[in-house]
Amino acid sequence: MAVYEIPLSAEAQTFRIQLAGVTYRMTLRWTAASEGGWVLDISDSTDVPVVQGIPLITGADLLAQYRHLGFSGSLVVQTDYDPDTTPTYANLGSTSHLYFVTA
To answer: Could you say which DSSP state residue 66 is in?
Structure first.
């Protein structure tokens, strides 16, 4: 098993990243609703949406329900000092992290 941290910052962002040999475009945005938080969209290398609106929550593989789409790893969110605390607007990339885990 290998664990890679996806570098993030506490701002809306779009970037390309290679995970397990596949290039993806990831977009993160903050939803400021009462039950809001960070949301992730994943597109393929040609910008065709693959999965949209994945909430960054802790304690689960964010890609588990999308395994049929060919992802060859897991995305996991964890916050320093309390792994069950979801990322806030201000701590994404500093004390709250997104990891890609391969088998």
So the answer is: G
From residue 75, give the alpha-carbon distance in Å to each of 32, 33, 34, 52, 103.
Answer: 23, 24, 24, 14, 12
Q: Which tens digit of pLDDT belongs to each residue from 40-91? A: 999 999 999 999 999 999 999 999 999 999 999 999 999 999 988 999 999 9
Domain boundaries, the chain: 2-102
15 pLDDT more than 90:
yes
Give the long-range contacts of residues 31-37, CB within 8 A, separation 24 or more.
32/89, 37/86, 37/87
